[in-house]
Amino acid sequence: MADGDLSRDGGQGHGAGAFRILHVSTGNVCRSPITERLNRHALAHRLGDPYIGGLVVESAGTWGHEGAPMEAHAATVLADFGADPDGFLGRELLDEHVIRADLVLTATRDHRAQVISMGHSAGLRTFTLKEFTRLVRAIDPATLPDPEQVGGVVERARALVRAAAALRGWLLAPNEEADEVHDPYGAPITFFRSIGEEINQALDPVVTALTGVPAPA
User: Fold this and answer.
1) Alpha helix locations (H) across the chain?
2) Backbone angles phi, psi at 211, to 5 degrees
3) C-alpha distances in Å from residue 61, one per residue of 5, 90, 107, 111, 145
4) Interatomic CA distance for residues 87 and 115, integer angstroms
5) Cα 129 vs. chain centroid, distance in angstroms?
6) Do the Cβ atoms of 164 and 137 come closer than 8 Å?
């Protein structure tokens, strides 16, 4: 299945056994669409079909442009990585998105704070993308459930979030900028590409930890 087939509608991959990952930025036209589609693309390559593993990847924006396409430069960046930009429509972040999410990964600390302020016990499952990457790198994969077992990918993902939350107070960022992905909105394609590479590098250890499958050489 192409990663573009992993639609966000409620009819696919949203059963009780699913694990939902929500990427959040401001307008949901640049950073979070790039992150969503790169994440889906990586999962498709590791698992063959992410729905088999029960992972569902979505995105929304704190000031989301509802129904808007992603920025043209964002689509170009995704194409550079071989990911599918087609069919994307922006969404405004709603309570229901946070309630359904098992893991919320935000572009910045401000976005993280906004998600947590919505309530729904979101604090223990909401991180900036780079913060989560830093925490995941410190978790011994041998302590996580075997993804090869039935339901193992979902159980592994849930255990990973719990472990990351437990580490958060101990493994702090070296500086405030370390957990930020800056907004490329309105910037030239060169800056979009640098942000795309930054996001891709941050996602790689996360996808490896979630699936137990390293990136292809």
Assistant:
1) 31-47, 50-53, 72-80, 95-100, 109-117, 129-137, 152-167, 189-211
2) -100, -20
3) 21, 8, 10, 9, 32
4) 25
5) 7
6) no
Tokens of 102: 């098992």
| CA geometry: angle 62, 68, 71, nearest 5 deg | 90
Decide: helix, strand or coil at residue 25.
strand
What is the rounded average pLDDT of the residues 163-176? 87
On whether the pTM is more than 0.85, the answer is yes
| pLDDT, tens digit, 9 for 90 and up, residues 103-147 | 999 999 999 999 999 989 999 999 999 999 999 999 999 999 998
Question: What does the pLDDT look like over 59-115, one tens digit per residue?
Answer: 999 998 899 999 999 999 999 999 999 999 999 999 999 999 999 999 999 999 999
**Does 158 have pLDDT greater than 90?**
yes
Residue type, 169: G
Distance CA 40, CA 84 (A): 9
Instruction: Select from 74, 76, 110, 113 the least CA-distant residue to 90.
Output: 74
3-state secondary structure of 121: coil
